[in-house]
Amino acid sequence: MMRRAVALAAWVGDGRPVTATGVLKPVDIPGAMAAMGLAAPARVRTAADVEALHRPWVAAQAVGLVEVGLGRVKATGGTPANGLEPWWTALAAVLRAESHDRQAEGASALCRMLLAVLAGEPPLDDIEDLVNERLHNAAGGWLIGAAYQAFRRGVMPVDAAAELLGEFGAVDDEQRLTALGRWADERFAAAAPQPVPADLAAADLLNRLVGLAEREAWDVVRQWLAGRDVQQAVAEVLSAAEQARPAARVAGIDLVGGLGAAMRPLWRSALKRPMLAPHARAALASWDAPGRAASEADQCWLAVEYALAVEDLEEAWHLVDDFGGPRVVDASTHPDAAALLEALNTAGRPPCRVYQLKVVLSNVRPPVWRRLRVPAALPLDALHYVIQAAFGWHDDHLHLFEAGRQRYADVDFKFDECDDESGARLAKVLPNGGTMTYVYDMGDWWEHRITVERVDELDDPAVDVVIVCVGGRGDAPVEDWNPEDGPNTRPFDVDAINHRLTALFDGL
Asked: Which superkingdom heads the taxonomic lineage of this protein's source (predicted)?
């Protein structure tokens, strides 16, 4: 598979035309197949239907061998890095393409589970039973859960997973692990989260949570809380958080916040602790006075706290800007405010980047898409509103984003295994460009493919980027359409879209 991806990139060279869906035009299919040493089928509707071409095509994009832009693809001139990551990145991309984005995580997890089962050299006729048994008996966790759901729902049968692993060189014709397959299994096993010791101290727990994705963090928290009195355990967490570094303290605050209003008495007790009081006031206000803004002093204090917690100066700059800029740090009573301000000034403001996005509504004919320019620092919750404005919708339904193995949604709706979209900036989710999925209306399942077409760096890092629609095509469907309401589509009107975007962000 990877050899074919490299050969395909070499054939692409300085550029080839692509269709609106980002695949090769039918006239170029024979040449691309010949470059990989394969024969082209006689009759083809689209290159996406030719599995032997589409899989290495997806893999080549995933590992950065080719870049697909507006109407054209070109080779980057790069080569895949050594190690397991590019290999798994390519495999995961193919899984996403073939199992629908919303099920790709489960299919990926199932492939990892299959590697572990095959490492035990099972009888060939027992592989599916052994996978089923492993999934039933394994300890909880997002990986096991995702694999189990993929297996039970038939997203990817075990024999299909084995076939795909064979194309990637991990399994041979007799469904035995190759040297690559064993290496991959060992690497994944070594990287798997370790069980949480029953006697793990609260301070060590907080340090362990730093840097984990939300769902992985909650796997750890659930293990740690098992068999403990929750009130006593949370009291220990808050005591440890008071003395912790900002990143660990915020992890503890998130832990307690995730346990809900039942923790009110402990939040009230935290009001007497200087390093916890601003967090406690914010938590209590979320139940007792929803919508009420924190005091200016607390906003300044929390701006410093969260900027220090990310331990990344570029992200710290964006967080500080969200709160009002460096003047907020200068006015803060946080004990580390002066150190943060000095670090920010020394590093200098990060470059201002603009992402050009093509947002395509999937499975709609004729095609419906919008081209948008937005700041790279835009959080996904704001991008949601931008897309709503671009298609003329009214935010009447649930939504989620998916990039790679990670999902993001509005934290208030408690989607399983989703991180908070308000804390995920576009540049962090897609740091090197690429694609992600946005789904709106879980009933109608309006799925969008979001592709980063280009990234521009502005000369002045302090400039405000205007969010704007610069192009598009197709009339967007009307949500919750009723025949009595008139037409079931809204005509594409770039001026109307930009008017809505201006009104949206002028009101923030």
From this structure: Bacteria
DSSP 3-state of 78: coil
Q: How does pLDDT run across 189-198, given as a tens digit for each residue?
A: 776 666 788 8
Phi first, then psi, for residue 197 (nearest 5°) are -60, 145
- Structure tokens given for 435: 């694609």
pLDDT tens sequence across 118-172: 777 655 555 555 555 554 444 444 444 444 454 444 556 777 778 888 888 888 8
| CB crowding 345-382: b at 16 or more within 10 Å, else e | eeeeebebbbbbbbbbbbebeeebbbbbbbbbbbbbbb
391-435: pLDDT as tens digits: 999 988 899 998 876 889 987 776 666 788 988 899 888 877 788
Q: 104 — phi, psi (to 5°)?
A: -65, -35
Q: How far, CA to CA in Å, does 46 sit from each of 19, 32, 97, 359, 488?
A: 9, 13, 15, 21, 29
Q: Phi, psi (5° rounding) for residue 27?
A: -65, -25
What single DSSP character describes residue 24?
B
- pLDDT per residue over 62-96, tens digit each? 888 998 876 789 998 877 777 777 887 888 788 77
Question: How far are the Cα atoms of 95, 242, 303, 327, 387 from residue 340, in angstroms, in the given order?
Answer: 43, 19, 11, 12, 35
Which of 99-108, 381-390, 439-448 has the weakest average pLDDT?
Answer: 99-108
Residue 5: phi and psi, rounded to 5, are -65, -40
The neighbouring-strand residues paired with 439 are 400, 447
Count of CB atoms within 10 A of residue 124's CB? 11
Nearest Cα residue to 233 out of 209, 256, 261: 256
Q: Cα–Cα–Cα angle for 405, 408, 410, nearest 5°?
A: 165
pTM for the predicted model, two decimal places: 0.60
3-state SS class at 357: strand
Residues 42-56 as b/e (b if ≥16 CB within 10 A, e otherwise) read eebeebbebebbbbb
Q: For 354, which DSSP code?
A: E
Report d(CA 117, CA 144) in Å as an integer. Answer: 13
